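User: hey, got a sec? need DUF4391 domain-containing protein folded
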Amino acid sequence: MFGFPGSTAVKRIIAKDSLFGRIGTLPEVTAAQKTAFNNEIKQVAITNVVGPKTLAVAPGSRVPGFYVASVVLKQKNFSLKNVETLLHRIGQKNILLALCVGESARFALKYDDYVVVSKDWVSAGEYGFALDGLDLDAIWNGIVKQVAGEPWNDSLNVADNLDIHKRVEKLQKEIVSLEKKARAEIQPARKLEFFNQLKTKIAELADATTQLTSLRAKGEAIHPDQ
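Assistant: Yep! Here you go:
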């Protein structure tokens, strides 16, 4: 499933209660957090273990191996907070979550301090990750890229790309908020202030999104062999 070879397949159900207690430096979850988690998540299971023993590829210096977990959701409208809870508490640094509802799936993972969630639902039975690279560092970085989606600049490192994605997402939310405020405001001076702020944010968003393209072009000019 999802493009991972049969040699990596396992089936390990993770008891949800095992995620709620004290784990390392993480405190026990509150009753409210437990209820919210159980209201959205039906089942969690490790489905793939990817490493040199299960895939003909060298270990990476950063990623010696990684896991894939199927997370069966009760509905498509899920909370990012519950995804973060899973990523922090499941006990594996490098893990790809397949968030499944019926025949549809989205994906989530953690890279350093970045929580990355794919934007669109895909067919769980048809979607497959490209596992490209000579070692597990390269394969994992490729998976991060596929989950994050476009735009992506291969001449930048993963963290820089994710930083731009995070900035774009923040600006998009700010623009939506300012648009609502500008439409609702009846005072001309205040409405103009909102429109000026909106204009600034739109310019910042354009700069952030085109930055990837311009940096990529610059990188290709410096490294024409790429």
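Quick note: The CA atoms of residues 58 and 78 lie 36 Å apart. Let me know if you need anything else on DUF4391 domain-containing protein.
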